[in-house]
Amino acid sequence: MKIGLGCDHRGRKAIDELVPYLKGMGHEVEILEPEIADDRACDYPDSAWLVANRVSDRTADRGILVCGTGIGMCIAANKVGGVRAALAMDELSARLSRSHNDANVLCMSADMLGQTLLKRIVDTWMETPFDGGRHQRRIEKIEAIEAGRDPGTSATG
After folding, report:
1. Residue 101 half-sphere exposure, CB side, CA atoms within 13 Å?
2. pLDDT tens figures, 9-27
3. Catalytic annotation, pick one of 7, 67, 74, 107
4. Catalytic (active site) residue 67
5. What residues have CB less than 8 Å from 80, skipping those under 6 apart?
6. Which of 131, 138, 145, 157 has the least C-beta neighbours within 10 A?
């Protein structure tokens, strides 16, 4: 699987440790970084935009974003069409974001999660399939909202 990774300055260490871990599982990994001046911090929206666009245009199968809390990355990534970014703070939220929401971008907190838990969350998220069924109808409603339509009248099922 092709995975785009991004971070701000606070998520850098976490991403650097995830790269060999994901490659060891056989994934193709690309760190997507904005060009920044050496004297300033990397702002999370810049990285979120780069990764989310790769997922949106399908040049990456999935994306993983890490910032201090994961919240900013999640908000920014969800502004890109076709992206369903989810903040996961544990394995259960990672599993449900995939099985119920077909999340294609995982957002995590560098400040609140240790590296061991980050890897367990990534494992769970990568291994969990989308359940489809009744959840597909809800994904269609999310897509309707994204297109500016009323989800109550746009989705089938």
Report:
1. 20
2. 899 999 999 999 999 999 9
3. 67
4. yes
5. 49, 52, 53, 55, 56
6. 157
| 100: annotated active-site residue | yes
Tell me what the mean pLDDT of segment 120-132 comes to: 95
Say which of 7, 42, 74, 100 is annotated catalytic. Answer: 100
CA 24 distance to own-chain centroid: 20
* Domains of the chain: residue spans and CATH: 2-131 (3.40.1400.10)
| Tens digit of each residue's pLDDT (9 = 90 or more) over 78-102 | 999 999 999 999 999 999 999 999 9
- pLDDT, residue 156, reads 56
Contact (CB, 8 A) for 85 and 98: no
Torsion of CA 71, 91, 83, 41, to 10 degrees: 40
